[in-house]
Amino acid sequence: VEGVVMSAGLGFFAGKRVVVTGDTGFIGTWLSLWLAELGAEVMGLALPAKSHNVLFQSLAAANLINHVDCDICDLDATCRVIAAARPEIVFHLAAQALVRLSYAEPQLTFATNVLGSVNVLEAVRVCEGVRSLVYITSDKCYLNKEWLWAYRENDELGGRDPYSASKACAELAFRAYSDSFLCKRGGLGAASARAGNVIGGGDRSADRIIPDTIAALEAGKPIVLRNPTSTRPWQHALDPLCGYLMLAIALARDPEAFSGAWNFGPDQRAIRTVEDVARLAVAKWGGGEIVHGPDANAPHEATLLSLSSDKASRLLGWQARWDFVRAVSATIDWYRAVYDGMAPIDVSRRQIREYMTELPAL
Ligand SMILES: NC(=O)c1ccc[n+]([C@@H]2O[C@H](COP(=O)([O-])OP(=O)(O)OC[C@H]3O[C@@H](n4cnc5c(N)ncnc54)[C@H](O)[C@@H]3O)[C@@H](O)[C@H]2O)c1
Questions:
Q1: Residue pair 129/88 in contact by the 8 Å Cβ criterion
Q2: How many angstroms is it from 245 CA to the middle of ligand 1?
Q3: What is the whole-number distance in angstroms between the Cα of residue 361 and the centre of ligand 1?
Q4: 187 Cβ partners below 8 Å, 6+ apart?
Q5: What's the mean per-residue pLDDT of the chain?
Q6: What is the DSSP string of 159-222?
Q7: Averaged over 305-319, what is the pLDDT?
Q8: Residue nearest to atom 26 of ligand 1 (CA)
Q9: What is the CA(1)–ligand 1 centre distance, in A?
């Protein structure tokens, strides 16, 4: 793997001090593990881990990351924790990340995703030595016109539900900090990054199709689909994460050229229905039943949303590598292996190595 890592340029991270906010969450844990595999010194900050964060627990038990409990809504604590880590690279992923929960907890969603993100920006502003900031928002930051065309980085921002609006606001705050402070400081590159519907092992969040499907399969119960025909741009976490890593490297090398907004969406062929995901999951798991259970009180969720990743492809040489079948298969394989007794960290490590061996030399 070492040779592959070096040839793909990811050897850049060896020995680097990296801060990951949201390291206990689904995507943050994968990123932290990948960085640790690359030899980075990872410091994570997030709210205390929950018992369902099994991949994080597995990483913590292996002493692979340095984690600090820290609420990003607390400015002083956030500045203190980030300053103490003396990071060269910061990945910001901490967020209230669930659309449904944003209807129940709108204030918490805006406080975390907007003010919490501003606190992270402030902590980076006052922290000398940061060379790259990758600030993760979402594909939902775009004003969704419910049309067929894919959104580009310079399309209008907006959001009808509290989660989407909070991510659009987080983008505006990023832009202001970036233009007014971060990009004026020589040697610091700052970028916001938007991905699609991310799947992968270790996610146990409520009201997401993969965790719900796995919980049903493990319990031997039917998988109840609320919106079987809804389509989403599905992608395995390793695809956008590879983009974030490549972006961090590019920002450190040429801040002026790479600062700004970036999409890392899947190929158009990965825009498939919820039912397609459930059917493939059942086939990979080796059994299971699917039933339709429409929810008349379901809050509005935008459909028809896709990202154009032409910019990342042309300027960074990034592309989505795992297609729909591969992304869902790797995800279900992960849960099946853990269900059968493998340690979460070992399954993830194996998948990261598999992914890296397929990366071309850059
Ligand atoms: N999962 C997806 O499909 C998807 C798609 C697009 C964008 N995103 C974005 O990617 C990021 C990670 O998403 P995820 O799916 O891993 O979410 P997750 O819910 O699994 O993890 C969220 C993380 O943020 C932390 N956090 C929440 N509130 C915090 C606070 N006040 N202070 C400190 N930490 C706090 C949690 O502790 C956790 O570590 C989020 O910004 C999310 O909006 C996710």
A1: yes
A2: 17
A3: 31
A4: 131, 255
A5: 94
A6: -SSHHHHHHHHHHHHHHHHHHHTGGGSTT-EEEEEEE-EEE-TT---TT-HHHHHHHHHHHT-P
A7: 94
A8: 94
A9: 29
pLDDT at 299 over 80: no
Taking the CA of residue 11 as centre, how many other CA atoms within 13 Å lie in the half-sphere pointing to its CB? Answer: 11
State yes or no: pLDDT of 92 exceeds 60. yes
d(CA 25, CA 22): 6
Q: What does the pLDDT look like over 191-242, one tens digit per residue?
A: 999 999 999 999 999 889 999 999 999 999 999 998 898 889 999 999 999 9
Q: What is the pLDDT of residues 251-264, one digit of tens each?
A: 999 999 999 999 99
Within 6 A (CB) of ligand 1 lie 22, 24-28, 46-47, 71-73, 93-97, 112, 116, 136, 138, 195, 197-198, 205
Q: Which of 82, 91, 88 is nearest to 242 (CA)?
A: 91
> Could you tell me the distance, in angstroms and rounded to a whole number, from the CA of residue 360 to the centre of ligand 1?
29
Task: In whole angstroms, give the CA distance from residue 35 to residue 352.
Answer: 10
Residue 3 has pLDDT above 50, yes or no: no
Per residue in 128-150, pLDDT (tens digit) is 999 999 999 999 999 999 888 99
332 C-alpha vs ligand 1 centroid, how far in Å?
21
Check whether 314 has a pLDDT greater than 80.
Answer: yes
Residue 86 CB coordination number (10 Å): 14
Residue bearing the CA closest to ligand 1, atom 32:
71
Q: What does 255-305 look like in DSSP terms, one character per residue?
A: HHHH-EEEEEPPPGGGEEEHHHHHHHHHHHHT---EEE---TTPPP-----
Evaluate whether 352 touches 321 at the Cβ level (below 8 Å): no
Instruction: Check: CB of residue 237 under 8 Å from CB of residue 301.
Output: no
Half-sphere exposure of 252 (CA within 13 A, CB side): 21
Which residues are 42's β-sheet partners? 18
Q: Within 10 Å of residue 295's Cβ, how many Cβ atoms?
A: 9
Q: Residues 355, 358, 361, CA angle at the centre, nearest 5°?
A: 120
